Every structure is written in C-alpha cells, then in structure tokens.
Amino acid sequence: MRALAAAAIGLAAALPLVFTISAVGSPPGETSPKPLLTTVPGPKQ
C-alpha cells in the first residue's frame, strides 16, 4: 500500500511538470544539416 501511495505522489508531482514543459513548447531554432556520427569512424580504405 505504501508503494501505491508513493507512486501516486510521484505521478501527481511529475504531471504538472510535464504539462508545463509541453505548454511552453520547444525553443526556436533550426537543426544542424550535418548528421551526427553514431559510430567510431574506421580506417580509411
């Protein structure tokens, strides 16, 4: 029962934060046209 109460309190604290961030929206700007490297480059052939 304590775990359920703790989960409810955590959810009640997290939801207003999520809604506030959603209402504010993302900051203005553009994404980079260059792709990000996701792996370490190997030797040149």
TrEMBL record:
Residues 25-45 are annotated as: Disordered. InterPro entries: SPW_0924-like. This is SPW_0924 family protein. It comes from Streptomyces arboris.
